[in-house]
Amino acid sequence: MTEEAMQLPDGVFSSALAGSLRLHEERIRQMYNRNRALFAEFIVAGLLPGAEIAANPGSPWDVTWKPSGQRRALRLQVKCSGAYLPRMGPEYAAKASWEVTSKGGWDPDLGEKLERGHHCDLYVLVRHEGLDIEHGWSFWVVPAAALVESKGKVTPKKLEAIGAGRTVPNELADVVSRAGRSLTRRRQ
């Protein structure tokens, strides 16, 4: 088959991309889990000035951020748990829980496969509650090392037991920065 034969007709790519973006936004606003989870990565990055989203979906972290005054960027794994599940209806509220099982991945900086483990510095566990995607966001920031012993899922009760408190959007940058400084002190 020739490359020319495999070429999309004029306008198909741009039309498909525009349709895909519209549908993705609609699914975010309707709070479908997969779309809301990816959107949560952008919420976290938006709350951390200068943060960047990991472009490679195989990366074992989702966001990198270098807080002011710190030597290196922090690697953040973002997990989202939403109370509203479209298939269950607005009267049902799912309990908060996050999957934190160790996984392998691809290190885009080193260009190599990573063995099973927790390869981020911090987890940012995101909770969305309510029926309005623009409101109802809260966060827990947890060092990855604190979750090594966790089997499968963690809940707010487990997070409280290990000393992780819930925070709101306007405080997230300070909480992540403090947690990053704490990691640096432990390494020294």
Structure description:
The strands form three sheets. Strands 1-2-3-7-8-10 form a six-stranded mixed beta sheet. A two-stranded antiparallel ribbon has the order 4-9. The protein has helices at residues 12-29, 33-47, 156-161, 172-187; strands spanning 52-53, 63-65, 74-82, 98-99, 103-107, 112-117, 122-128, 137-143, 153-154, 166-167. Helix 1 (12-29) packs across helix 2. With 188 residues, it is an alpha+beta fold. The chain has a single domain, classed as 3-Layer(aba) Sandwich (Trna Endonuclease, Chain: A, domain 1). A hairpin with a 4-residue loop joins strand 5 (103-107) and strand 6 (112-117). The protein has four helices and ten strands. The N and C termini lie far apart (59 Å). The protein is globular, with a radius of gyration of 19 Å.
Summarize the helices and strands and which ones pair or pack.
Layout: H1 12-29, H2 33-47, E1 52-53, E2 63-65, E3 74-82, E4 98-99, E5 103-107, E6 112-117, E7 122-128, E8 137-143, E9 153-154, H3 156-161, E10 166-167, H4 172-187
Parallel strand pairs: 3-7
Antiparallel strand pairs: 1-2, 2-3, 4-9, 5-6, 7-8, 8-10
